[in-house]
Amino acid sequence: MASPRSHDRSDVRDPLLDMVFQAASDDNLPRFKALVMMLDTGRGRPKEAIEELRVEDDAKLQGFSALHIAASRCSLEVCRYLVEELLIDVDLVDKEGRTPLLFAKYHNGGTAEYLLDHGANPHKANNDGAFLLHYAAELGICEMIELLLAKGAYVDPVSARGTPLHVAAGGGHYGAMKILLDHNADVSLSTYRFCLKLPYMF
Q1: Is the pTM of this model over 0.90?
Q2: What is one Pfam family matched by this protein (predicted)?
Q3: What is the enclosing helix (H) or strand (E) of 21?
Q4: How far, in Å, CA of 55 to CA of 164, rounded?
């Protein structure tokens, strides 16, 4: 049987999850800090309090953290607080092995660049072996591809679906393909499906 203390903390934490994540999504730093203090319940360990707060009841987002939310919503002030004041790991992962950086892929000028500048690993694969560059190439997010490559991301990581060049070709994202080729992506690592796409670039 859980102790009264642990039961009470669970009752407090669960109703606060949505409020904490909403504050992170809105980049409302004063409210976010106040909610973190409520979660801490006077222990003086706010980092632990926020690290313990994860999505558990949604299969697609299981293990999602406040930093994942902040990164995905380009909430730069909340990201700074989590990373610089609470010293949250920039590469913490959810149940699928996805880092906050992966969810920042649409916001390359904000949270993605911030996370990369503060040590986020662009070479960290998820549980399926896919890298952020694969996702950016699959969606044709050219600015994100350029940012990752400028920050030193390897241009030819291989997943079950091939390289980012292969993935971009499969989606017909010719702008993404051109960027990857300009950064010396290895055409020889691609497959027949990619070769069918290549002539249409020119």
Answers
A1: no
A2: Ank_2
A3: helix 4-26
A4: 30
Which residues are within 8 A (CB) of 127 and not within 5 positions of it... i.e. 6 or more apart?
A: 96, 97
Name the β-bridge partners of 162: 159
Domain assignment of residue 20, given as a range: 1-121
Same domain, 94 and 73: yes
Q: Which residues contact 42 (CB under 8 A, 6 or more apart)?
A: none
In this structure, the answer to whether residues 96 and 7 fall within a common structural domain is yes
The tally of domains found in the chain comes to 2
H-type alpha helices, 27-126: 29-40, 46-51, 66-72, 76-80, 100-103, 113-117
Picking from 121, 151, 170, the residue at the C-terminal end of a domain is 121
Side-chain-facing half-sphere of 84: CA atoms under 13 Å: 10
Domain boundary among 101, 121, 141: 121
What separation in angstroms does the CA of 75 have from each of 38, 50, 64?
A: 21, 16, 15
